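Notes, p. 3: input format for complexes.
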Amino acid sequence: MSNLLLLGNEAVAQGALDAGISGAYAYPGTPSTEIMEHVQRSPESVPRSIHSRWSANEKTALEAALGMSYAGKRALACMKHVGLNVAADIFMNAAVTGTNGGLVVAVADDPSMHSSQNEQDSRIFSAFAQTLTLEPCDVQEAYDMTIAAFALSEALEIPVVLRLTTLLSHSRSVIVRQPEREANQASLPEDATHFMLIPLYARKNWKRLIEKQETFREQSEMSAFNTLLDGPDHSVGIIATGVAYSYARDCLPGTPPAHPILKIGQYPIPEKAIRELAASCETLLVLEDGAPMVEERVKGVLPADRPVVKGRLDGTLPRCGELTPDAIACALGQPTEPMIRPQTLPVRMPRLCKGCPHVESLGFVQEAMATFPDGRVFSDIGCYALGLLPPIELEGTCVNMGSSITMAKGFRDAGLGPSVAVIGDSTFAHSGMTALLDAVFEQTSITVVILDNGTVAMTGWQSSPVAGKIDRICEGLGVDRGQIRTLVPLACNHDSNVVQLREALAYEGVSVIIAQRECVHGEGAKR
Ligand SMILES: Cc1ncc(C[n+]2csc(CCOP(=O)(O)OP(=O)(O)O)c2C)c(N)n1
Ligand code: SF4
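Output follows (527 residues plus iron/sulfur cluster):
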């Protein structure tokens, strides 16, 4: 046992290793990526044969993790918040099957959308699935809670969600380690019907999940992660969750703090503790990073008239974006030190790297499409999405992973065109392949430009399972061999690349262009 200096994400990974996992499954996505990377880098992973390869997407990651849990071993699944949408089907159903070996789903939310398309709150998703959530307030708790999450998962036979937010995922601090646990030996579930969600058994399993809810509530009331700290001034009582608790303690230091503080780190919310705090306070101020999830639930638990509940819903705190210590100080009527805000710094637009293969790929797409004012380019998510910004400014869309191909199809189905999808190799593997199948099935006239740079560049050069095999995959999905063109996106090939794309655009049916050149930083994709 030793103390370690770790990022919040690394603390989760170390907690999982010390909790005796046999496998980690993940698809990269900021702010969650470092969890898997720490498992991969750990000197313990190879001798303990811990599975730690990247999955094709978040759904396949969680399904494999549930398979490992079914075999009686402990598994960690990691993703960013929008990844949980992709994994939603298995996530909702895994709550119904329950677990055998411990299963923890670490989900990193991104309030303020530092690198995401929205700021959805995974605590709400977890409550929707009727499972149990832990939300750490600092790096040490991220480590401790991961270990506790595995214990809860095994004791209650439920996948446990560990909800992180960007700031904690990327904060660094020293953690004190706990004794390591042995990995489980394989052992199949005692009642195999738990994992058979055919209606006969699904109804029984659903009832079992509903019946567990009371236990989850009791566990929350008793949890060491939910604590009520009294303070002398009861004009305001604070309810603070996750990192917001650490901010609250910055604003209200000392023991006791000036106001009573109920810290919430385990969900469902501890209703008794909330009522106890409310009974002695004129006002409650709810502090949480993300949606006003606890604030809404607190209002449901308390009488309508007293105490007054303040937070993000009544405008005491900003409704959107990361919660900041400044915003909390302001809500408490404290003087605030102006923080250095990004707006005061010169704005630098993100740009593709010098020599990036996407520069030439987007260049030939733009030139070929220039003669079609009604045509559109549907971008997917990856480095190439920067093509929507100056100086390239392709006119089109960028919505969610895999949507480029299907949106291009819908645009064409609406009678408009030409319709081009631009998608990277990893995104194609993640959720582009089934989209292409839809287009092939209907022989919709779209052109799919797949940018094969051999890696998942945007999230840190992880391995891409389809790199170098995309032509064969497209052929296997039913694209005409003659309509699969592989070209090299280099300036010296620009004119011939434009010609090839124009030929593809003229084809009535599905055509594919594979632009194949390594990311300039792709000195060899990681694991
Ligand atoms: C559902 C979901 N999971 C993960 C991410 C994070 N993410 C954004 S783009 C991307 C993959 C980019 O790889 P690729 O398409 O190959 O393009 P490249 O960056 O290599 O150009 C990932 C993992 C996301 N935005 N949404
Ligand atoms: S990391 Fe690679 S793919 Fe991304 S912009 Fe830079 S060179 Fe291009």
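The CA atoms of residues 72 and 117 lie 36 Å apart.
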